[in-house]
Design goal:
The protein is mainly β and about 280 residues long. It has 3 domains: about 80 residues, Sandwich (Immunoglobulin-like), CATH 2.60.40.10; about 120 residues, Ferric Hydroxamate Uptake Protein, Chain A, domain 1; about 45 residues, no CATH class. The protein has 4 helices and 21 strands. About 5% of the residues have low confidence.
């Protein structure tokens, strides 16, 4: 009986040791470019006191009790990732972190001539980002029609209906390129084809009079074309668009869509001509 008690006690002790034995969760944390990330916080969500950080080569190691745990990976500027992990033995789990995208406040300079958040501006202002222009393959004058309150009348711009109806004259809208006027001196018109679309960062539009800052040429508003600032890394961008005009349904208008070709024997042939259009820009 005494021997049986000793064996039973030994069995209980050995079972307790087995249950108390820790298992290891380990692996490597990298970013989108497969670069090892240093200092990533790895914790158990249910008990944040149990955790570690990745070392100089991105490796981590946790010693946990057998069972299911929710493991969380955190790093500033990256999306937090968490996984339920069931452990009965040592397990390797590599993690890839992705950068967290956050929309920054839009900064403008036209309203006060110094940098200021758009939300803090007291004047009525709209900002047209360069991505809108590039994605639509639009010319500058076409893109301006996307701004609320702005209408193009031929080559003439009207902000809230404040301009006249003379094409390319009497705009009463001041066009600026990085703060410098770019309007025609003889008529006050804007030469839209000269705008460097490929270099634009954003277009700031003040709707309404801005004469206090810019003079009588800004009675109807201001358009400031802001170009990108130089950056440490090399930037290359090439924009190209092309297409053709379809034949008008009204046959009275398709005279420009056909072309008469004279063959060597003198016979004339009416050939269909697809009028093409296109443009391209490049920045380095």
């Amino acid at each position: 009986m005494k021997k049986l008690s000793i064996l039973f006690t030994a069995f209980i002790l050995s079972s307790g040791c087995l249950l108390a034995q820790k298992v290891k969760l380990y692996g490597k944390v990298t970013d989108d470019k497969d670069t090892a990330m240093i200092g990533v916080t790895v914790v158990v969500k249910a008990n944040t006191a149990i955790g570690t950080i990745t070392d100089s080569v991105g490796n981590y190691l946790l010693e946990l009790d057998p069972g299911t745990h929710a493991i969380e990976f955190r790093y500033l500027g990256y999306t937090t990732r968490d996984f339920p992990v069931t452990l009965f033995s040592d397990k390797k789990m590599d993690i890839k972190m992705t950068e967290e995208g956050k929309e920054l406040d839009i900064v403008v300079v036209t309203g006060t001539k110094y940098e200021k958040k758009l939300s803090e501006e007291v004047v009525s202002m709209e900002v047209l980002k360069s991505s809108v222009i590039n994605q639509n393959n639009a010319r500058m004058d076409e893109a301006m029609n996307k701004v609320p309150g702005v209408n193009m009348l031929g080559k003439s711009i009207a902000i809230r209906g404040g301009s006249g109806f003379s094409d390319a004259t009497g705009n009463r809208v001041l066009a600026l390129l990085d703060g410098l006027p770019v309007i025609s001196p003889e008529s006050g018109g804007i030469i839209w084809d000269m705008v460097p679309i490929e270099e634009l960062e954003q277009v700031e539009v003040i709707k309404g009079s801005s004469s206090a800052l810019y003079g009588s040429s800004a009675l109807n508003g201001v358009i400031n074309l802001v170009t990108v600032n130089p950056k440490p890394e090399m930037v290359n961008k090439f924009l190209m668009s092309y297409g053709f005009y379809d034949e008008p349904k009204n046959k009275d208008w398709d005279w420009w869509w056909h072309r008469i070709i004279v063959k060597k024997n003198g016979k004339q042939v009416n050939r269909v001509q697809h009028p093409m259009f296109g443009n391209g820009q490049f920045i380095h």
